[in-house]
Specification:
- This protein is mainly α.
- It has 2 domains: about 1-50; about 70-270, MetI-like fold, CATH 1.10.3720.10.
- It is built from 10 helices and no strands.
- It has helices spanning about 1-45, 50-55, 65-100, 105-115, 120-135, 140-165, 170-175, 180-210, 215-220, 250-270.
- The longest helix is centred in the N-terminal third of the chain and has 43 residues, at about 1-45.
- The N and C termini lie far apart (about 80 Å).
Length: about 270
């Protein structure tokens, strides 16, 4: 009896020790992130102004801004999210809940897992051949959005499947026992319990897409653009316009890359 009590006390002590170690590890990570954010804010706060966000790029540094870049990034990510998130979540739900377990399904799962690790430039070359030349969508916002949607689609599918797989099987069994159909079980029980994991995967996927440069350069993103796409809302009927999907674009990572290249080039000239 005393041996059992000692064993239980020792297990509780180890659990408490592990919790403390985990908390310290989390605090170290948060402190590092906070230090980086504070350092970044202190370096850039003095250089930011409202004029910087509402001005177009210019060859004069005092007049230059990022208006076209952040608007282009917003529109491209809108197309990416509205395309990749519904398709990725639906594909993950089908593969995990509805697809039969056979060789074809296993082959699809292997290909999806492999596509998640393909370099982004490969997606850019594929999009150049498919969207720009074959479908004749041109070097436009819709082409960029679909390119990034293909890039993050495997990530969303894998994250959705992992989140659904983490839902206990007893929840499904309880729903079936109460007379729920397959779709009711998935809609009312499986998806609500797995929403947190799915959203985590979606955020990670979109954060990767928003920082990509290579595939967008491949499909024709501009480094200098001094105008905005056509507005999506109009004063005349039908009030909603999709002309902005066909507009040329630039994005924030490309502007950052262009600035870095100019900076390095000028330093070499000074040498």
């Amino acid at each position: 009896m005393k041996t059992t009590e000692k064993s239980i006390a020792r297990s509780k002590m180890l659990d408490a020790l592990f919790a403390v170690i985990g908390l310290l590890a989390m605090l170290v990570g948060l402190a590092t992130l906070l230090a980086l954010l504070v350092n970044l804010a202190s370096d850039g706060a003095g250089r930011l102004s409202w004029q910087f966000f509402i001005s177009y790029p210019s060859r004069f540094a005092s007049r230059a801004g990022i208006l076209s870049a952040w608007v282009g990034t917003t529109l491209v990510m809108l197309v990416t999210a509205t395309t990749a998130v519904p398709l990725g979540v639906a594909a993950g739900v089908y593969l995990e809940e509805y697809a039969p377990k056979n060789r074809l399904t296993a082959l699809i799962e292997i290909n999806i897992a492999n596509l998640a690790g393909v370099p982004s430039i490969v997606y850019g070359l594929m999009a150049l051949a498919l969207f720009v030349y074959q479908l004749r969508l041109g070097q436009s916002i819709v082409t960029a959005g679909l390119t990034l949607a293909l890039l993050i689609l495997p990530i969303v599918i894998v994250a959705t499947r992992e989140a659904i797989r983490a839902v206990p099987g007893t929840i499904r069994e309880a729903a079936y026992a109460l007379g729920a159909t397959k779709w009711q079980t998935v809609k009312d029980h499986v998806l609500p319990y797995s929403t947190g994991g799915i959203l985590t995967g979606v955020i990670i996927a979109l954060s990767r897409a928003i920082g990509e440069t290579a595939p967008l350069i491949t499909v024709g993103a501009l480094t200098f653009i001094a105008f905005l796409p056509a507005p999506p809302v109009q004063a005349e009927f039908p009030f909603i316009s999709f002309e902005w999907l066909k507009s040329p674009f630039t994005v924030m990572p490309i502007q950052m890359l262009a600035i870095y290249i100019r900076f390095r080039f000028r330093r070499r000239i000074k040498w």
